[in-house]
Every structure is written in C-alpha cells, then in structure tokens.
Design goal:
The chain has one domain. By secondary structure, the chain is mainly α. It is rod-shaped. The termini are far apart. 70% of the residues lie in helices and 0% in strands. The longest helix has 27 residues.
C-alpha cells in the first residue's frame, strides 16, 4: 500500500509541476504559445482559470495523499512498548556473580 501511495504522490507532483510551469503570472506563458487553437475556442481568460483550478486541485490532492499515506505506514514498536520490554529484560536477568 505504501508503494501505491508513493506512486500516486509522484504522479500528482509531476502533474502539479506541469500545471505550475505552463502558467505565467502575466498571462502569456506556454498556454498562450501552444498553437492558438485553445485561445480561439476557450479564450485566454478561461485558459488561465483552468490552469489555476488544476493547480489547486493537484495541490489539494497532494496534501490529502500526504496525510492519508501516514495511516498506512507500519511501525514496529512504539516507545512505550520498547520501554516495557527493556524493563522486563532488566527484571528477569540474573545478577552477575562475582568470581573469586
């Protein structure tokens, strides 16, 4: 399950990076240079809205995946369990007898 979440996180990171890199805060990024067909069909304003919504969606997905993936990590021992086992080992061990 950890591998599944790792693959999802990497995929979402790549998509988020793509959405961020094709944007330009001044409105003339790669989205304005990709053939002009998109600008004729949707217009520049709608293109930037789609890119901004996509950025927010992938950023939210990354946060959700990061928070939910923690639930599937397996821990071997907690600190309290280790302390109890250490105390039990100390109590059951035989004291060293001095040699004469």
């Amino acid at each position: 399950m950890v591998i599944f979440f790792s693959v999802l996180v990497v995929l979402v990171c790549v998509c988020l990076g793509f959405f961020i890199l094709i944007q330009n805060p001044k409105g003339g990024g790669l989205s304005g240079n990709v053939g002009g067909v998109g600008n004729q069909l949707m217009g520049v304003k709608q293109t930037t809205d789609v890119l901004e919504k996509g950025t927010w969606i992938f950023a939210s997905a990354l946060v959700i995946l990061a928070l939910t993936s923690v639930m599937f990590l397996k821990t071997k021992h907690s600190a309290a369990t280790e302390d109890k086992s250490l105390i039990q080992q100390i109590n059951t061990s035989q004291p060293a007898t001095p040699k004469k």
